[in-house]
């Protein structure tokens, strides 16, 4: 059983790939990579789907783009998007699987190896991550997004895996019912309870990542095969098994986004790290309760999250120099679950350690810096 991802992306590409969404996708890509553009860089889009990430890389000035997908409908959709962009000579689309070593061996290595929300749908996620990382050059960056177990607490990952199987077995009417039921519980009722217009949320959804609300609902409910990966689990696998170094992470939504490079390599990120002002947190840390600890950072009060802007803070927390990444977490979840969650609220940084240990006695170093956003390469 496999979900027809390509048919969903085909509908999205025909109806929703607008200049605004392309601009949003391009901005999100560059923001995470901390680059102004991709000029002079080759871009490999693994599981290219709708083609919007490849198109974003093209708009960002990549010197060469190669996208490939296992699903023939996704390949056709990406080809359609490429044609709409004028069929540029430096953009190639192939059909192939990230699990097929003979196919991968024929590909050129790329400066940016990219796979957003794909590798957990292969049926062999860690093999797919390892194979994708093998397409890096010595100085490449490796950007992946994986569904995160840490987010799915209630309902649990097991619930969603069961629901996805039921969705894929259902007929068209039953699927439509499940989509609306999900939208009601996940979006419409929460927005109404918060005094907001849920229809406005759905209309504005594309501005967050350049996607479509209903396309993502279908992709989420239908996505099968499917695996989840914890943040600590992903860091450990990529660091210990693949020899990679974590550069950047964004968590707190369904997909956690990771940026790696090879250990000991040098690339544009050295310039970013060299200009960053990292400050050690003052100890001792105050135990808030459960897994939560408090560090006081009154100098960053103007940057803190608020009720009106719950994801405003750009403060990044590091453990032994590596970003924890699970920012803007609900305080109750920090206390209950720990596991790299943190929140910058008022004059305080409420946080948990990666292994839920006491930060006063675990021998690790905790520091902070302000995330500068894109445009950081000189």
UniProtKB/TrEMBL annotation:
<dbReference type="InterPro" id="IPR029063">
    <property type="entry name" value="SAM-dependent_MTases_sf"/>
</dbReference>
<dbReference type="Pfam" id="PF13489">
    <property type="entry name" value="Methyltransf_23"/>
</dbReference>
<dbReference type="GO" id="GO:0008276">
    <property type="term" value="F:protein methyltransferase activity"/>
</dbReference>
<dbReference type="InterPro" id="IPR050078">
    <property type="entry name" value="Ribosomal_L11_MeTrfase_PrmA"/>
</dbReference>
<dbReference type="GO" id="GO:0032259">
    <property type="term" value="P:methylation"/>
</dbReference>
<protein>
    <submittedName>
        <fullName>Uncharacterized protein</fullName>
    </submittedName>
</protein>
<keyword id="KW-0489">Methyltransferase</keyword>
<keyword id="KW-0808">Transferase</keyword>
């Amino acid at each position: 059983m496999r979900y027809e991802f390509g048919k969903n992306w085909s509908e999205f590409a025909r109806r929703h790939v607008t200049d605004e969404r392309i601009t949003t996708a391009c901005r999100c890509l560059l923001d995470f990579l901390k680059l102004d553009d991709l000029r002079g860089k080759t871009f490999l889009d693994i599981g290219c789907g709708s083609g919007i990430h490849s198109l974003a890389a093209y708009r960002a000035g990549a010197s060469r783009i190669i996208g490939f997908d296992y699903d023939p409908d996704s390949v056709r959709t990406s080809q359609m998007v490429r044609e709409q962009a004028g069929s540029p000579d430096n953009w190639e689309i192939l059909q192939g699987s990230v699990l097929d070593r003979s196919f991968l061996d024929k590909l050129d290595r790329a400066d940016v190896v990219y796979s957003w929300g794909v590798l957990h749908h292969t049926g062999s996620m860690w093999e797919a991550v390892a194979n994708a990382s093998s397409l890096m050059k010595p100085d490449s960056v490796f950007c992946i997004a994986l569904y995160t177990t840490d987010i799915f607490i209630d309902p649990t990952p097991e619930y969603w895996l069961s629901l996805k199987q039921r969705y894929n077995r259902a007929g068209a009417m039953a699927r439509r019912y499940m989509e609306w039921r999900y939208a009601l519980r996940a979006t419409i009722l929460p927005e109404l309870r918060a005094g907001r217009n849920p229809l406005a949320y759905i209309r504005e959804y594309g501005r967050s990542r350049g996607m479509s609300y209903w396309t993502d609902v279908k992709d989420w409910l239908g996505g099968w095969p499917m695996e989840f990966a914890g943040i600590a689990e992903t860091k450990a696998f990529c660091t210990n098994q693949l020899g990679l170094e974590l550069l950047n992470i964004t968590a707190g939504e369904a997909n956690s986004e990771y940026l790696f490079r090879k250990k000991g390599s040098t690339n544009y990120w050295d310039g970013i790290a060299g200009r960053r002002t990292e400050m050690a947190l003052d100890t001792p840390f105050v135990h808030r309760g459960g897994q939560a600890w408090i560090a006081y950072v009154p100098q960053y009060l103007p940057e803190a999250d608020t009720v009106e802007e719950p994801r405003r803070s750009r403060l990044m927390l590091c453990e032994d120099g590596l970003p924890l990444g699970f920012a803007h977490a609900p305080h109750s979840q920090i206390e209950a679950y720990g596991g790299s969650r943190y929140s910058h609220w008022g004059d305080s940084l409420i946080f948990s350690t990666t292994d839920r240990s006491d930060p006063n006695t675990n021998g690790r170093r905790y520091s902070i810096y302000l995330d500068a956003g894109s445009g950081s390469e000189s």
